[in-house]
Amino acid sequence: MLNPSATSEFSSLYGEPNTPEQYELLEDARAEFARLAWQPYFHNPSLPYLLEGVANQSILLIWGRQDRVVPRSVMDTYNRVLAGSKLVMFEDCGHRPEIEKTDQFVSEVRNFLAA
């Protein structure tokens, strides 16, 4: 999240600071996720070639320019290989545009669905 203080939902979504016990559980979960999702499971270099098979679809890609999870190059690749896709980039936004820029996100989705 780029600016938690600018997001009214932050505290309800992410709660109060973790207790030491919660922090330990979080670290255990993070380690397990790394074991399960490390290459090659969630990393597939052939994904762009597989996505080329998606045809005749209207696809909206929304990305926060300051996203530190999904690199810009990934979004550019998705936009290039997904025929008919539209890439919308939100400024001053991280990985959660639906939370960080809710009004802008809803507006883009509504416009996309209305087209």
Characteristics:
mainly alpha, two-stranded parallel sheet, 115 residues, flat, Rossmann fold
Give a brief rundown of this model.
This protein is mainly alpha-helical and 115 residues long. It is built from 6 helices and 2 strands, in the order H-H-H-E-H-E-H-H.
Task: Provide the low-confidence segments as ranges.
Answer: none
CATH C-level: Alpha Beta
Number of strands: 2
Give the number of domains: 1
Estimated share of beta-strand residues: 5-15%
| Cα shape | flat
Largest sheet: 2 strands, parallel
Radius of gyration: 17 Å
Number of helices: 6
**How would you classify the helix and strand content by structural class?**
mainly alpha
Measured as a percent range, the helix fraction is 40-55%
Secondary-structure element string: HHHEHEHH
CATH architectural arrangement: 3-Layer(aba) Sandwich
CATH superfamily: Alpha/Beta hydrolase fold, catalytic domain
Task: Please tell me about this protein's structure.
With 115 residues, the chain is mainly alpha-helical. It has one domain: Alpha/Beta hydrolase fold, catalytic domain (Rossmann fold, 3-Layer(aba) Sandwich), CATH 3.40.50. It has 6 helices and 2 strands; from the N terminus they run H-H-H-E-H-E-H-H. Helix 4 (72-81) links the parallel strand 1 and strand 2 (85-90). The longest helix is centred in the first third of the chain and has 18 residues, at 20-37. It is flat, with a radius of gyration of 17 Å. The model has no long low-confidence stretch (mean pLDDT 85).
